Amino acid sequence: MASLVVVGAQWGDEGKGKVTDFLAQAADWVVRYQGGNNAGHTVVVGGKTFKLHLLPSGVVHERVKSVIGNGVVIDPLVLLEELDRLRDLGVQDPELFISDRAHVILSYHRLQDELEEKARGDAKIGTTGRGIGPAYVDKIGRAGIRMIDFVDPERFRKRLETVLPAKNNLLAKLYGARTFTVEEILAEYAEAQARLRPMVCDTSYLLDEALKRGERVVFEGAQGTLLDVDHGTYPYVTSSSPVAAGAAVGAGVGPQRIGTVLGIVKAYTTRVGSGPFPTELKNATGDRIRERGREYGTTTGRPRRVGWFDAVMLRHSVRVNGIDNIAVMLLDVLSGFDEIQVCVAYRVGDETIRSFPADLELLAQCEPVYERFAGWHEDITGCTRFEELPQAAQDYITGLERLVGVPVALVSVGPGREQTIVRKQLL
């Protein structure tokens, strides 16, 4: 079946944007299936850097059709800014389809997000403040506004008249914050309504028909498995399901339509925000990896926490996603180290733990058990075949395969699309 899910197998920021863009060269459709503009996917093409937040990472390919699925929460103003930035970079208006069932982030969601995070104090989650969580809460609480409502002026007004009194009551009485009027929001979003209206449609139907015709579809997730609201390090998670099963729900296709699951991993591990991180390096080695890997958030600019590769966590991701293959990103960042370490188990006291625990208090006590690999000092950014890599780098990749239990299909040795070693054709 010519469909593939690109899923983050760590805490997000693994390089899904580059992989999706690379695969889009052979795809007909690219579909973003969950999350919001709290995601940041960076694509480098022809020396130009594209930082995408809502648009699928295949959008820079003129012949590829792009879809924002029903599982995404959309800030219409951010989406317009992103489309305008693409045009400024020389990309023609993409063939973009937006699900009529996707929910909308509005101004009051952003304010609520900021106020809630501030109120958490020392227990803050590390939200980006973009309104994603409150929009998903409204969706589940049946107080959300969908794109089908948003692009119809009269229907949008009626929905605002229904939901805004309760939202204003929350903002004013719980937080002592400002409130919003219907007319204010209608005026703020009038241009977005008009510009996005032609793109809104039943994308589930379009994708089902495309798959029936045998067209090649890439489903792109945001964030990563350990940020999944069910399978991640709860409550330090996102508000949606980045795992591969989320592609079926978030794009409106049956699970039998999903062909291959590709897990994206860094050659090391990073995370943003609070929560336990067993392999975290709070030393000069961690600082060196952060600077070499430019580990700062695409969306927020926040420095990412850095650690060695965690195979315990990856085995958890392989299981909950049904990962068939993995892509190892940023291998070039590890050039220059005499030794590289990989966590193969955790130890708490006299106990050895080989599966990823749900208990965060237990996880915080876990000490990593490492397997050590020889490093390499050669520049690998020009390598185009696996055999061209230094033997130590080859051994590291095959070692990850052994420890994680699935083959490595792609190896990234630099930010450019062409800096990708293909060990297995996926589409």
Describe what you observe in this structure.
This protein is α/β, with parallel strands linked by helices and 427 residues long. It folds into three domains: 3-99 and 200-261, 3-Layer(aba) Sandwich (Adenylosuccinate Synthetase, Chain A, domain 1); 103-196, Adenylosuccinate Synthetase, subunit A, domain 2, CATH 1.10.300; 266-422, Adenylosuccinate Synthetase, Chain A, domain 3 (Alpha-Beta Complex), CATH 3.90.170. 34% of the residues lie in helices and 20% in strands. It is built from 13 helices and 20 strands. The chain has helices at residues 16-24, 76-88, 107-120, 132-140, 147-150, 153-175, 182-196, 203-212, 245-251, 284-292, 311-321, 360-365, 391-404; strands at residues 3-8, 29-32, 41-45, 48-52, 65-68, 73-74, 96-99, 103-104, 200-201, 217-220, 260-266, 269-271, 305-307, 309-310, 325-329, 339-348, 351-353, 367-374, 408-412, 420-422. The strands form five sheets. The chain has a ten-stranded mixed beta sheet with strand order 9-7-5-2-10-1-11-15-19-20, sandwiched between helices. Strands 14, 16, 17 and 18 form a four-stranded mixed beta sheet that branches. It has a two-stranded antiparallel sheet with strand order 3-4. Helix 3 (107-120) runs parallel beside helix 6 and helix 6 packs across helix 7 (182-196). The radius of gyration is 22 Å and the shape is globular. The model has no long low-confidence stretch (mean pLDDT 94).
